[in-house]
Amino acid sequence: MEGFFRALAAACKSESAAQTFACIVILVSPMYPGYFFTQPSMIDALSWISYTNYLSPNVALVLAALLWFEFVMTDDFRTLSGACDSLIPSGPGYKNINQVCTMVDGNPNVDGKGFVALSYEYSYSRTWRNFGILIAFAFGFIALCLLFTELNTRTSSSTSVVLFLRSKAKNALRPKSSSSSNEEKAQRVSTGVVTGDKFVNAPSASPISSHENCQQTDTHLGDQTPGRKLTFRDAAVGTLHVENRKRTTIGVELAVKPKRLLFLDEPTSRLDSQDAWAIMVFLRDLANNGQAILYTIHQPSAVLFQVFDRLLLLRKGGETVYCGDVGHNATTLIDYFEHNGSRRCNPSRADFMLDVIGAGATAKSIIGWYSLWVASQATALQTQIERIHGEGRKKKIVETTQHSEFAMPWIHQLWELFKRDMQSHYRNPTYLMSRFVLSIFAGFFIEFSFFKSKNTQQGTQNKFFSIFMSTIISVPLANQLQVIYINVVRSVNAQVVLLLVEIPWNIIGSSFLFCWYWTVGYPSSRDGIHLSHGVNFPVYYTTIGQAAASMSPNAEIAALLCSSIFSFVIAFNGVVEPFRQLGWRKWMYRVLGQVSPNSSLISEIWLVTLITTYEEVYTLLKAAQSQILS
Predict the structure, then answer these.
(1) Looking at the chain, which residues constitute the CATH 3.40.50 domain(s)?
(2) Higher per-residue pLDDT: 372 or 628
(3) Which CATH code for domain 161-188+199-394?
(4) What range(s) does the CDR ABC transporter domain occupy (predicted)?
């Protein structure tokens, strides 16, 4: 199973497509091995799925599930022999007469081997054949996974540099590896504990309207146009070159006109040397015109490194190693390290700094650079800081005003985000079509699998399981929501908007999903309550999926958490195992089953169906009685 789903994920181009195909497999594979309805009760048009077509990957997994189910059933039931608890006739005085069991085989003592053979058409003689085929399937899926993984290899980024720029002079901070220092300075860190004070020209930094942050990660929706926020180009952001995306990000932040600082997180990441130089020249012009800039940069070359005027270099643990002028061609910086006992500088000045302080993967340093800095530069720097604070105290005191978390009103944010996300969904046909295709396929598959189920014992059970199977696809649908939720959500308003935007699309999808209601054999007189549950159920799994995503750091953890929640709900809603057979686990049914709308959807539609069936039977009996009396 794991090998199949990994191969499926590696073969697909997007998360939505992979989850759609995975959901189709999840829907088909447990239905046709014979648990939900036996092979004799399957319709002829679809019964072939349970044992043929070895070439289709999806049906191959169905076949693997069928073989595994037959292997386990025949191995466990071949030695079982139980007493039938539903004998006809039954009651006092019927013990020593001819009684028949309502179970398949009809004998008072139910033989497990015969029960499996008659109910499921399984045979113990095929056990080891099935085991060998399952082993072959396992190796085949693993081989497919390795093949698709090799064809879809991707590269990852490495270490980075943090740089500080201030107006008319560029001051650089460089830790040993990539850091979230810019996120903290922009007050966008949501985890951990951050202490200390930030001062800009003596007063404490204002939380809003004074600085903006350009993140390293592309925060734009791929189907939005830069022209929506600034005059750049009438093209979708997802189609732009990396440099143009960086310029779009910087332009969006500059449109706010930050009064004090502009934060950038690795503005040259994933850029070639020419594009990186163009970005650096642009930022240099901003600094020369009085805009204070603070940013990180990934492995600056010698050409980029000489753009900066000052450097604040940190090593692991936040210890300051150097703080001062860089000098022409970094001569001042290099002289400082060589004067204090380091080796001679190699051609790469950036790598030289990391190697000297022991920040590389194999580099080590026996020199206490932090102690040397405290003894040499720290005193002069502290004197300069006190002088700046003293000049700030002499200025006229400005009355502070209370600022809200955001500069834009909440309602205005909500409306703008709602329009943006609705447009984003409309421009993302892959995501929407994957949801609609999944709903349409699931609806038609359930419809024809349980086509016109009769009012017999097996037919009634088939109707019951048709409701249950329609709720299974809520898990992958919720997982699709989580990917977008984690990639887009950065505020409370965005969370609310994503919930509101998903509702109409889910309702449209549910209208396709629940089209099996009449075809399976449910009464049309009760379709109103069925439609109401079909509208409410998508809201349920949408909120559950987004709630799991809001508690998770990434989409993988969110999918695991959401799947675990739905697993408990499905296992204890009374369908897979009736309430009377749960034993000590009945409390889980009361906690998870009765509270969940999943159980409410199944129970209410099922109860309405039973009531309608009883009404029809009562009407027929009453008509027959009237005819007999007449």
Answers:
(1) 161-188+199-394
(2) 372
(3) 3.40.50
(4) 88-171
